[in-house]
Design a protein that fits this description.
The structure is a single chain. With 174 residues, the protein is mostly beta strands. The chain has three helices and seven strands. Strands 1-2-5-7-6 form a five-stranded mixed barrel. Strands 3-4 form a two-stranded antiparallel ribbon. β6 and β7 form a beta hairpin. The chain is elongated, with a radius of gyration of 38 Å. It starts with a strand and ends in a 20-residue tail after the last helix. 10% of the residues are buried.
């Protein structure tokens, strides 16, 4: 009977142990705990179920990489084969291991941010407030008198409208 392949997610519990066989092959062992959530219909809420404990073993490059990457408390995903169940633990021979991205960001050698990404960023200074240009007339807002009204009023004129170039008042119909 061939061992069944399974996918497991959980939290690394404790330190990763790495050893080498007499022929120099790396082998590592670590513990993993998965606490499934269960729906409590009486309380109408989710609660933690009974923790499932795994003892995982990895070989060769996977063992070396796991020993360098895994630490206590990190959430991971493991694809492996169940080799036995004893002492209230499931024993897995790991074929692949991945860091869970649910709670953290993972970088690879090729995706590491550049040193410039860690440099503090100084926000640009805000531009000075714009002052109205004397060469451009201010935009007329609805409900305000036209610009010529203000010009004539400030020069002492209080007539009914604009004047022609020779100073004679122009009639403006309503």
């Amino acid at each position: 009977m061939t061992p069944s392949v399974t996918h497991v997610s959980g939290t690394v519990t404790g330190d990763v142990e790495v050893r080498f066989t007499e022929s120099g092959v790396a082998v590592c062992r670590f513990r993993l705990t998965d606490t499934p959530a269960q729906w409590d219909a009486a309380a109408q809420k989710w609660s933690d179920g009974t923790p499932i404990r795994y003892v995982c073993t990895a070989w060769r490059n996977l063992a070396r990489n796991a020993a360098e990457s895994l630490v206590n408390g990190v959430n991971i995903l493991v694809k492996g084969r169940i080799t036995e169940i004893r002492d209230n633990a499931v024993y897995l021979s790991a074929d692949d291991i991945g860091i869970s991205l649910r709670q953290r960001i993972a970088y690879t050698d090729t995706s590491l941010p550049s040193p410039a990404a860690a440099a503090p960023v100084t926000p640009p200074s805000p531009p000075p407030p714009a002052s109205p240009s004397p060469s451009r007339p201010a935009a007329r807002r609805p409900g305000n008198p036209p610009a010529w009204w203000e010009e004539r009023r400030s020069s002492g004129w209080s007539g009914n409208g604009p004047a022609a170039a020779d100073g004679t008042p122009l009639h403006v119909g309503r």
